[in-house]
Amino acid sequence: MRAAGWLVLSVAIAAGLTAPVSRAAEEQPVPPSEANAPPTAQPPASTVPVTPKDAAPPPSVTIIGASDAHGVLGRDVRSAADEGMGRIVDIIVDRTGHVRAAVIDFGGFLGVGSRRIVVDWNAMRFGKIANKKDSITLELTKAQVAAAPEYKEDAPIVVLGASGSLQPLQAIQ
Known about the structure:
Blueprint: H1 2-26, H2 32-35, E1 76-79, E2 84-93, E3 99-106, E4 115-120, E5 124-125, E6 136-138, H3 142-146, E7 159-160
Parallel strand pairs: 1-6, 4-7
Antiparallel strand pairs: 1-2, 2-3, 3-4, 5-6
């Protein structure tokens, strides 16, 4: 067994030594004038950057100051009389992407006995929401929100609005 291993190793070494010799023999001899010439820099194959035909243009960038905009999901909602109304748990947009309403987790205690109510986006005031502790003010009373029907996914949405400010959603043809 040991002799077979040495035989395989010897054949592999011999094959490795003959491969460079055979490649050198196949190369064409270089004329003496080119052998002593200094190497010249080859120009790059293409100096124009290649871009795919369907490449998208670079995106636009907008910078919004830290004090100019804030997230609203999870924010507390309070009435104008400073009554706790719940938390914003979702945002409703129409087919064109315009914000129409907010879903508020209303009532209950620690999530038990609460229900989701949809309120018109225009019925909310975002005055001072500099940090997560600040709340959003809703122009509805607690009694008005308590009387609203519950929001259920995949069912028609009943939006509770202040002074009828929400226009009905038109069917897009």
